[in-house]
Design a protein that fits this description.
This protein is α/β, with parallel strands linked by helices and 287 residues long. It is 37% helix and 20% strand.
Length: 287
């Protein structure tokens, strides 16, 4: 069976000191990526570019092409510029190319390191199951005590919900090529692509035996980002009952973020995805 090839986008804002470790975890994969793109979403200095230059020689030794892409200006007025950066990077490396250069693409946060067999396990699973559009492993986040434990989203604490997660998610490249660029969101598009896949009749899953190690909890798990989570909840059109649920379990910062985004009318341009998160989402939520 032909595995196909894949491209990995490393999302980074500052934290240049973590780039080498993340890069090495990709370079030592037993099924290596064909290309790695470091997507800088607005670092105010050149620290990320300097670190990129340091790893270039090592990249050639591992026969992997590595690019640096400055996808967002630090002065752009956005709470989270990473969506803008990734949208521009896709436009250059994946979308609307004359030939399909890659079979799969993956996005990983710079503070994450996939296990050595991670991409082989995930892509093997997807090759065996054409109905799977998005697939990720299990994220194990480092605790203050120094050990790693499984992360669980708020939505997965009481039900067995196993959608593909953000960092380390693998997506079939052809699917993105069939979506107009203007529908791509400017933030948190990993949630958006899960919904697009489901609306098209595909599956999004987690593999319990593929692991990514993260040096900290991700946004949707950490309480430090409740305000941003509230903004995103309005952006995606989340059901009001789900907003209430989040406020009860995560605090008033969620509500403050929601209200600010509503006042600004900061809405996802893809109305079909917003409708998915409306009242009918209570039915989707338990699938």
């Amino acid at each position: 069976m032909t595995m196909g090839n894949y491209i990995v986008f490393i999302q980074i804002h500052g934290e240049a000191e973590k780039l080498e470790k993340c890069w090495k975890s990709l370079a030592y994969q037993d099924f290596k990526p064909s290309k790695v793109v470091i997507v800088d979403d607005g670092t105010p200095d050149d620290s990320v570019r300097r670190e990129y230059m340091r790893i270039l020689n090592a990249a050639h030794l591992n026969y992997i092409s590595v690019d640096y892409f400055k996808g967002a200006d630090p002065k752009e007025p956005n709470l989270d510029t990473v969506g803008i950066a990734m949208k521009r990077a896709f436009g250059q490396y994946v979308l609307f190319t004359e030939n399909q250069l890659f079979s799969f693409l993956s996005i990983i946060d710079v503070d994450s390191c996939p296990a050595k067999n991670y991409y082989r396990l995930v892509i093997e699973k997807m090759n065996l199951n054409p109905s799977i559009m998005c697939c990720s492993g299990v994220i194990k986040a480092r605790t203050k005590c120094g050990y790693y434990r499984d992360e669980k989203l708020l939505s997965a604490k009481f039900i067995k919900r196993k959608d593909a997660r953000g960092s380390g998610k693998v997506i079939r490249a052809f699917f993105l090529n069939n979506i107009p660029l203007n529908l791509f969101p400017e933030v948190a598009w990993d949630t958006w692509i899960n919904v697009k896949a489901k609306q098209a009749g595909y599956k999004t899953i987690q593999l319990p035996y593929a692991t990514i190690y993260a040096s900290r909890s991700t946004t949707r798990v950490s309480n430090r980002d409740n305000f941003r989570d509230g903004r995103l909840s309005y952006h995606f059109g989340y059901n009001p009952l789900l907003i209430l649920y989040k406020v009860l379990f995560r605090g008033l910062d969620v509500l403050r973020g929601y209200r600010e985004a509503r006042q600004q009318q900061w809405r996802l341009p893809d109305e079909k995805v917003r409708q998915w998160f409306g009242w009918r989402y209570l039915l989707h939520f338990w699938k």
